[in-house]
Amino acid sequence: AADKIRLIPQDFFAELCEQIIQHLNHKIPGINTAELCQRIQTSGVDINIGDLAKIANTLSFLFSTAARNNLTTEELVTTLGSGVSTLPKHAVQVIRHVWNEQGKAIAVSEDARNTATVGQFVDMKWKLGVAMSSDTCRSLKYPYVTVTLTVADPSGQITDKSFEMTIPQFKNFFRQFKEMASVLETV
């Protein structure tokens, strides 16, 4: 991860660290590594989304472990310096700054984080479509609903999950959502 961190410009690395801290503090549902990766690539850096996701997971683990152990800024920087593969100087400076500014807030919310082992729902989009034909059937003309769920997994990575439903399946899906809404109103 240290080799890939060297590639990331300091401003993008700082933005990634800020997003991770905000996620650990439950201020945002996750880190949109796809969008950040695209912006980094546009700036001329050759990095792929898998590598950026690994860096995000490593930093998330670093910050949450430091919070769990109530490390001071100097203890964290000393620990980073004693690692097998040393981080670039700009990365250590960013981590020092971010931890110094916002590290205490994570320590307070870390107990709540330990209870969250499932992903978090971020957004849902849907669209209605009609299949007109296929290579085996000339005239289908059946409607369907495509649903795209945006979720943040426990590490904070935001992903989209898409699926299609027939109209009867969508009606059942909708009925279940109405049931959930009515139950939530009673709470």
From TrEMBL:
<protein>
    <recommendedName>
        <fullName>COMM domain-containing protein 6</fullName>
    </recommendedName>
</protein>
<dbReference type="Pfam" id="PF07258">
    <property type="entry name" value="COMM_domain"/>
</dbReference>
<feature type="domain" description="COMM">
    <location>
        <begin position="120"/>
        <end position="187"/>
    </location>
</feature>
<comment type="similarity">
    <text>Belongs to the COMM domain-containing protein 6 family.</text>
</comment>
<dbReference type="InterPro" id="IPR047155">
    <property type="entry name" value="COMMD4/6/7/8"/>
</dbReference>
<dbReference type="InterPro" id="IPR017920">
    <property type="entry name" value="COMM"/>
</dbReference>
<dbReference type="GO" id="GO:0051059">
    <property type="term" value="F:NF-kappaB binding"/>
</dbReference>
<comment type="function">
    <text>Scaffold protein in the commander complex that is essential for endosomal recycling of transmembrane cargos; the commander complex is composed of the CCC subcomplex and the retriever subcomplex. May modulate activity of cullin-RING E3 ubiquitin ligase (CRL) complexes. Down-regulates activation of NF-kappa-B. Inhibits TNF-induced NFKB1 activation.</text>
</comment>
